[in-house]
């Protein structure tokens, strides 16, 4: 398996900060200075609270998108429309960290166990209790952060995707799994401000 290609950069994260802050202040964001290649992508916001860091929003798209439009769209979607959280406010921005994940090296797994913890993100398709096809994904870093085994990760992913029934061998063997890798960059609000000040000096 080839190692992860370094394609995500801190400039992508700085742009997400610029987009979010501009939106919250009703201003127009600056034009991005990086290339406009196409990737499936996710934007993740985390917030520091009392010395601990917590997820504040994470949404992305598995369809390849141009980076300029894709990052602009998902910087806001993940910050304001993640149904698990209230929209991010301007007051919270100084405590935020932004991560950009560009997804690469997609491969169909032989079965639901055909992936490596810490290397692959996983995307599954399955049939829910009502006979409808559902999907769910975890980015590569999520499973090591949670300390899950493969079995625990798959079970959690089924629940995340809305499966409420008993998880048995038949259900597991019916899963269609796609594994992928992620090039990830992250930046804190302070790093974003330092970058802005340096670029204007």
Automatic annotation (TrEMBL):
PROSITE patterns from the UniProt entry: AMMECR1
SUPFAM superfamilies registered for this protein in UniProt: AMMECR1-like
Coiled-coil region(s): none
Domain AMMECR1, first and last residues per copy: 1-196
InterPro entries: AMMECR1 (IPR023473), AMMECR1_dom_sf (IPR036071), AMMECR1_domain (IPR002733), AMMECR1_N (IPR027485)
Pfam families (UniProt xref): AMMECR1 (PF01871)
Superkingdom field: Eukaryota
NCBIfam families: TIGR00296 family protein
Protein name from the UniProt record: AMMECR1 domain-containing protein
Species the sequence originates in: Circinella minor
């Amino acid at each position: 398996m080839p190692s992860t290609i370094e394609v995500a950069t801190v400039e992508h994260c700085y742009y997400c900060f610029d987009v979010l802050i501009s939106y919250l202040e009703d201003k127009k964001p600056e034009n991005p200075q990086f290339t406009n290649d196409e990737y499936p992508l996710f934007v993740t916001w985390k917030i520091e609270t009392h010395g601990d860091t917590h997820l504040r929003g994470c949404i992305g798209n598995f369809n390849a998108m141009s980076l300029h439009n894709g990052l602009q769209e998902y910087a806001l979607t993940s910050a304001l429309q993640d149904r698990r959280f209230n929209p991010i406010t301007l007051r919270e921005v100084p405590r935020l960290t932004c991560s950009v994940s560009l997804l690469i090296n997609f491969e169909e797994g032989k079965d639901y166990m055909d992936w490596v913890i810490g290397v692959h993100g996983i995307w599954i398709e399955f049939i829910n209790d009502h006979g409808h096809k559902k999907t769910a994904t975890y980015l590569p870093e999520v499973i090591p952060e949670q300390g899950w085994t493969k079995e625990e990760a798959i079970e959690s992913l089924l629940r995340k995707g809305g499966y409420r029934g008993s998880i048995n061998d038949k259900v597991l063997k019916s899963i269609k799994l796609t594994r992928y890798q992620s090039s990830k960059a992250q930046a804190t609000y302070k790093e974003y401000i330092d970058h802005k000040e340096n670029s204007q000096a």
